Amino acid sequence: MTTSITIDDEGVRRQLADGTEESVTWAKLSEVAIRTTPEGPWKEDVFFLLMAEGGGGCAVPAGDPSADDLMSRLQSLPDFDNDTFIEAMTTMEDGLFVVWQRNK
Fold it and tell me: How far does Cα 92 stand from its chain's mean position?
């Protein structure tokens, strides 16, 4: 369970109830995907997966209050795939939608 999510100019951090933290800096962000599940509408069913270069990253539930700020920041990334984003946000099935990858 998430206790807090921080989104700032450095990156994204998610504090979990067990004391662990997931994080990714914008500088190390390598991929953004959206994971959907058929769990809704009563349970969280959409997650933003922010993968860091070299492994690790952060998952942010779309229902979290911080998600609007996160979506704005993600959609400003160069070559963000808005069509795939819309497809992901409107599906009700299991799915993984890659909406951005860092060009190497």
Answer: 17
Cβ neighbours, 10 Å, residue 23: 17
Nearest residue to 62 (alpha-carbon basis) of 41, 48, 43 = 48
pLDDT 10s digits, 42-71: 777 899 999 999 999 999 999 899 999 999
Closest by CA position to 70, among listed 18, 2, 1, 19: 2
Tell me the pTM.
0.90
Q: Which among 11, 9, 79 is positioned nearest to 48, based on CA atoms?
A: 11
Separation CA 80–CA 23 (nearest Å): 20
